Amino acid sequence: xxxxxxxxxxxxxxxxxxxxxxxxxxxILTVLSVAIAAFVIVGSYKTLTLPAGExxxxxxxxxxxxxxxxxxxxxxxxxxxxxxxxGILRMINFAHGEVFMMGAFTSFFxxxxxxxxxxxxxxxxxxxxxxxxxxxATSVGVAxxxxxxxxxxxxxxxxxxxxxxxxxxxxxxxxxxxxxxGTNTQGYPRPEVxxxxxxxxxxPVDRIRVVVLVVSLISMGILQYIVARTKTxxxxxxxxxxxxxxxxxxxxxxxxxxxxxVIGGILAGIAGVLFxxxxxxxxxxxxxxxxxxxxxxxxxxxxxxxxxxxxxxxTLGVLQAVGPPLLLTGFNVPSPFQLEDVVxxxxxVLVLIFRPGGLLGSGEAEKV
Amino acid sequence: MSAILEIDGVHKxxxxxxxxxxxxxSVNEGEILSVIGPNGAGKSTMFNVITGLYGxxxxxxxxxxxxxxxxxxxxxxxLGIARTFQSVHLFPNxxxxxxxxxxxxxxxxxxxxxxxxxxxxxxxEEERIRERxxxxxxxxxxxxxxxxQEQPAFSLSYANRRRLEMARALATDPAVIxxxxxxxxxxxxxxxxxxxxxxxxxxxxxxxxxxxxxxxxVVKGVSDRVVACDYGQKIAEGTYDxxxxxxxxxxxxxxxxxxx
Amino acid sequence: xxxxxxxxxxxxxxxxxxxxxxVGLLAKFAERNLIGELxxxxxxxxxxxxxxxxxxxxxxxxxxxxxxxxxxxRAGAAGALVGATSGALVGLSVVFVxxxxxxxxxxxxxxVSPDLLDFLSFGLSIWAAVGVLTVAGAIxxxxxGAFRSLDPAIRRPLGNAVVITLLMALLQRxxxxxxxxxxxxxxxxxSPVTGGLTWIGAAVVFLVSLGLSVAWMRRGxxxxxxVRTITQEQPSAKVAAAAIVIGLLALxxxxxxxxxxxxxxxxxxxxxxxxxxNIVVGYAGLLDLGYVAFFGFGxxxxxxxxxxxxxxxxxxxxxxxxxxxxxxxAIPIVVMLAAGAGVLIGAPVLRLRGDYLAIVTxxxxxxxxxxxxxxxxxxxxxxxxxxxxxxxxxxxxFGFREPHHFFYLALAxxxxxxxxxxxxxxxxxxxxxxxxxEDEQVADxxxxxxxxxxxxxxxxxxxxxSLGGALLGVKLGSLTPASFEYIVSITVLxxxxxxxMGSIPGVVVGALVLIGLPGLLRExxxxxxxxxxxxxxxxxxxxxxxxxxxxRRSRELHEEDRAQDKWASDLSGDEDVAAPLTPLGEGAG
Lengths: 368, 260, 589
What we know:
The structure holds 3 protein chains of 3 kinds.
Chain A: H1 7-11, H2 18-21, H3 24-48, H4 58-89, H5 96-117, H6 119-122, H7 124-151, H8 160-181, E1 186-187, E2 197-200, E3 203-206, H9 207-229, H10 231-241, H11 243-248, H12 253-279, E4 281-282, H13 288-301, H14 306-328, H15 340-354
Antiparallel strand pairs in A: 1-4, 2-3
Chain B: E1 3-14, E2 17-28, E3 32-36, H1 43-50, E4 58-63, E5 66-67, H2 73-79, E6 81-83, H3 96-103, H4 112-117, H5 120-138, H6 158-170, E7 176-180, H7 188-203, E8 208-212, H8 216-222, E9 225-230, E10 233-238, H9 240-244, H10 247-254
Parallel strand pairs in B: 3-8, 3-9, 6-7, 7-8
Antiparallel strand pairs in B: 1-2, 1-4, 4-5, 9-10
Helix pairs in contact in B: 3-5, 3-6, 5-6
Chain C: H1 3-23, H2 25-29, E1 33-35, E2 39-40, H3 41-57, E3 61-63, E4 66-68, H4 72-100, H5 102-108, H6 114-121, H7 126-148, H8 152-170, H9 175-181, H10 199-233, H11 235-283, H12 292-306, E5 309-312, E6 315-317, H13 327-349, H14 354-373, H15 378-381, E7 387-388, H16 403-425, H17 428-438, H18 440-445, H19 450-476, H20 486-499, H21 504-520, H22 528-542, H23 551-557, H24 566-571
Antiparallel strand pairs in C: 1-2, 3-4, 5-6, 5-7
């Protein structure tokens, strides 16, 4: 081969075989979707046709769904933080789950003190307002600090750099909470008013679930108003569209970014208290799984889209609650509820493969 | 002369915009075919559709008589169609030589085990890759020779980046090379030099050359045939003089339509 | 010098110290002597905070287009102001704690202990402590400022010498043992009473490292050049060097005893993982946050193939499926299976954009850890209780469970992994990975099947990761899901990032530092993860190319530095530029 033959002659022999022409990816995806559909159909069928003694009652299902919706509301609140930051900076603020945890954990000390002094049950509304305020203040502080220290210096770095930083920051915050507040899981007090059930449409529903849903919906409504109607919202949308142009139009990009983190922090703080009230406990590790679930919710709805985050949150909450018992019980899988997060991750993977833009978005996540 | 590459009624839409609207172009083996047309005429889209960056919505593309629609870019390259990009795309942090060596990728086959064990065959192949890459760089004479080959590509001058991109395409041992505005941003002397290089690609290397070019002196100097496009369609075809005096071409460039 | 900025820097330094106190590090290291009884770990940290604050605050700044350096005396004074501010803030926080009530604060911040208060007040009255802290802060801050104004020819060796001395002090659990093993008397260097360096020892270490550092600065280039020519002209020199290194490594367990061998064994497992992940992250540029999946896969598959016992509530049981193969027969099977798993996992998700890929892999990793904990797979892998009686990979009765035996097995595996990864990097495959990492679309257009090479990276990474899992089984003899949590993925990532993406020597150093050091000083153990988090953030911000960078990779990570170059900025990272409508070359169209 030492002598240079002309290139044209070298390549005449090359032919694509039929095998090489196969669209392998499409085949894999088709097989995958058929398998999943089969699994879902067979699993649900088997579960729903179990003999009366083993099957879940309608009351159980309703309880599961209510749990899912209320859980979904919390996911939606956290997911909004991911989606806002992503919309503006095109980065995944991986430490957002820790922002949520920090708010919940700090508010615990106030809640605990109020419970001990009896203030929490004497005037629950005032006490809860203070508790929410503390959580929100902490979460906002952490979020802003995070932006200033960890993310701002990397605004123009290659994409994976801020993501790695965010992962590090997430671990750092989590371990800081561990060092500050200790490794114990603390029992989060709940005002007695929120124990028990209310009867809604003739069905008993846990009070706390109702409160979670109502508070989340109000918060989301306010956020929607801010983004759609106020000047802050307008500048946020402008920066999300094109940072450079927005700054040329006289918008202070840094301020808008900080405001975005502030809003994300507020929502995370609220979500933190709601989560703590629901499960009556806090620990330094509590931000991880809800964080990932919320991120999944944001992707599911279409990351960057506010409505999408809300929709994704509720959808994922219900899927997580209903999925394992519905699909797995029929296959005799023991304790299907342990596999809740498997649902989260499966949903995440499947959404990204089949509909990378999410339920409401366009196909942005895929290259070319 | 037989057609080596045929573009047959290709449509490509992006959203509401029709980039290619039934384009028919036929490239004969061993010729230099220039594609001209105002900005937005769909010239680069044509290249991208040929190389498999996106599939056509409609129509067929045949290389040596076989359809290449649906193939991935690397498969198209393997068949023997190489290209350069309108805005230069090198591997900026790899050395000049390595850039050219990447071109040989599809002509070589060393796998995991060969590479780990460094079998004699692998070593011979690596030697051949290196030699072929040097040869491809050598096509531009002293421009990409010597110490420059060990420098990262980003350190090259603009004109040399364009040359390196062409050398990398040559290193894929193509039958057809597609150049997207090769002289853009070059000074007159460099442009002149490049004109000779394009001609030499045909004469010395026996390649079929498909070139998108705005500089009419270059088009005139190199082309066996010229195809003019506008609105994603072919509006004229023939020798340079025929096309240059075609009314529709003149209208496309100077007429009522906005240029650029 | 703007006094407001100096005071701000001082406050940051003070907050850093308060942070260290709150998080518990100061109390933890208060008893760890480094040099004599005066320099303890905690004191070194507090002094370092003031020193660094003074050093950073006096860095040269660009004012009106001119780089302004600060001269010695003024820098010293500025540094002293910075340090004094830090010290005063810390002192005032002590006063606050005293006033508010230690117990009430301790209800929230568990780290605020009487020990911490004792440490920060030096056993003096509260206000006297404020004075001492302020003065000490001023001294160290001033030193920091003065250090900044030194000529680099003096500053660098001096800095190296201080760092090396502190490092030697931190190695107090290894070096004396090693010296004793070879028959040297360590007592002059390390005090048997305090545990740390003696003052004489510290002085000797300091002077020797100072001398070596100066010599290296003067002659280093020449030495490096001649080493390069020797290794280039005589390939046998390379072989000889490798033989010497391997010989020295083989002596380590003999010299350093069980404790160190044990720590090094763990470090080797993580090194192996890091070499694998380096292929995925460093070579192919794919961020994999679920790497632990391969680790777990390797561990459990090896255990099942070679036979093990499940831990159950009723005692023991045999796994649902299990073979009884020899360890060395099982390993190739495990590696092939892991590579296959890598391909299967990768195939559907590899076309995702980088950050999405990271999250998806994280999800896949978490799924593995949920599944091995679940009741569902308990009959196969033992659920939360895991399994025991995992093979010790014995060859003719020579088992590898003993730490100093295990070291050799791990060393062999690591050597193979390094060899494989180095050969791959310097081949046609490595070149394809490089091209793909730099510009995926162009690599595709140049004939590289990016899907195939991404899958290959996943498969190679997975194969090496599974080896790490197999080793873990040999080392521990038992497996529980606790060993395969998310944090493992992050630990391995931290090693790769700290060392430098794509750099094998970097990865080695990273593993030794991040796994070895905390293993040797028990005080670090609790703060391991905190340190990993801090490392990831700090490296990405300050030195994204890592400690020992891969040349090319470091250029990529600094692409923004060349952004004034239009051509470079067109290419740099932001994929949104290449939105679907205008992927390549469509520029003006």
